[in-house]
Fold:
Amino acid sequence: MDPSKPGLTRSQAERRTYRPWRNALLAGAALAALTPWAEAANLFNSRPLDASSFAVLARPLGRSDWNLLVLEQIKPQPRCWEERPDGLIDPALNRFNFTGICSRYLDSNGYSLRIGDQDLASRYRLQLRQSGNELQLQASTPSDPTTLVVARAQVPLRDRDGFVALKLESGWDLQRRSFGEQTLNHLYFANAAPLPQLLAAASGTSQPAPLLVAPPSLLAQGMGQGPIRLPVIPFRD
Structure:
């Protein structure tokens, strides 16, 4: 018998002690399983931003890699970035204490993809890829070979201290994630078009044509009576 709980055997006491931990673990697993569903169910919303306060930049890493970052100008001065004569961007915020003046969004914790009304942070990855002198910001997912080009730039030269400014493709813009009335410190590369439409355009295919269904009156006319007689509308110039 457990001396701390008269009337209970030791095994019964252990089961009672274990039950709260088991329930907590089950609740955590259920929450993790619901995360993709919550994104699909539009748990987050988005709000438009002033594009002039942001710079989408590619930072050179090593000999050929690139890292995506977004800079935000919160106060007018001093400037968080400046364009150099050679076309590259000087990250001027590295030369002063930019707290409260500039914001940096450095990885998937700071930005993600939003298409239509869907938050695709858990499905799509943003990645920079260079071909020749062209640098592209691409969105891709393991479940589909089609990549979406979100932004692009021409690389004038490679300088470890100079960043490349990317220009968003038509239809894309920056938005801020929100939850209810609360604005969050997370950016979206957003496009209002439906995902199937963007994938079809990127792959060079057209979306399936909608299925045309005859009116009920014509269906009733044709049931068991051979070919359906369609009304002829005369053409007038």
